[in-house]
Amino acid sequence: MEQPKVYNTEEELIKWLEYDLEKQRIDISKNRNISPDDVKCEELFLHIGNKNFKSIEKIEINFEFDFSAIIKKINIKNNEIYYKVNCASLIFNRMVDFSDKKHNNKIVFYNELKFDNSNFNEIAYFVNISFEKNANFSNTLFNKRTYFNNIVFNCIVYFRSISIYQIEFGNIIIKENFNLSIMNEKENFNLSIMNEKENDKVLIFKNIKFENEKSNLNIFNIDMKINKFYLNNTIINGIVNIKNAEVETADFNGSVINGGWVNPVKFKVHNFANRESALFLKNEAYARNNIIDALEYKAKEIELHKKELINKPNKTLKDFGDIFSIYLSSLYSDNGLNWVKSFLCTILFSILFFTMSYNISCIPIFTIAFISILYVLLYNKNILNHIFVSAIIYIIVSIVFSFIYFEGYNNIDYVIKELFSFIAPTNFSQILYNKEYSSYIYDCKSNIKIICFIEIVFKGILYFLGKIAFWYGSVQTVQAFRKFSKKE
């Protein structure tokens, strides 16, 4: 009897398994001159997958695969499998269930298990299972949601170069090494029949237990961008290695490092699901003196704290102050990461306030620029470039406007002198009233006293705001410049 290339019913598969197991017993007994009954189960293969390991041809299963029901029909008792299980090079076109839902009993694989080079084209469940020997799921395509729950890995397990849609590992106990890497399905498009609309790649680890401090969870060489990565509610007393992975959103909520450690290498996280997740990686980076990554995580933590404050009901005055402070820190220096940007902002905003205080007639121009900034703020998430461009354009236009209609180009040396006096951190001579030397702040063209009074008040306020902007920017520049020498 040849192994079928397609199983359309459970009965066809059972018929093949019974035949193949019996043939293996007879062949082994002849070679060893023993009775077939003396052949141990550990010596036999349960060839559900292709019996020829060298063949690249895959076998299709076109029925709902209930592993517990199948093993009972071939007289395997108590869900204890001593056979070597070969599920390699299979295409599961219907739901797959490796669990004993009816009796809620654990399935124990005492021998090696091979699932490599298989396709799961529908939802798959691996629930309440103990793997006692090596388990290999390498080069496998999980094209629908896949669940590994209540699993004990008392062996080395491989999930190398797999392709996923959404895969969840929950209530997992790791005794030795758990190795996972994910390939880009575009490089293997001829093997995958994944629905192109289902673009979210989700990798979930929750309630993971490490048998000891030498137990490893290795997530290596993920060649595709993971949309959502979860490592939740896990006490890490082993080792978690994450290497060469890019994640859109990471969530470490509920996980605690207790005697173990997390080692992220080239682990790029675009966003964190919550502030606790950024705090988790930040603290671990500081603990290992990884200042560079710690600063990145700290900046993201601050941004998430700002979102928490914005969404907080019944905000206090302190909350509003913190929100404003984080906005400024983000605008000036990317929360302490970019000293060049901070330096440019210090000069830019100082000049901005100087031009307004130098000539109050520039206020309408500023108002137009400010309204345009608010418009972009409401309709464009990335406003920083627009803010800088608007501010620079405003400064150029306002200075030209001032020179042409009020001072003339003959006084440009006077304007530059006043500008340098303005940005000098300890020079406050311009705000001091002196009859012999009239500062531009007290220079009023109008003969109406109330107009001059209002103009002087506005100039004075803008003058002090400019000084504050300069001092704030100076502090931000120094802090960002010294970022690598700071410690948590």
Automatic annotation (TrEMBL):
It comes from the Bacteria. Keywords: Membrane, Transmembrane, Transmembrane helix. The keyword Membrane applies. The chain crosses the membrane at residues 362-380, 386-406. This is Pentapeptide repeat-containing protein.
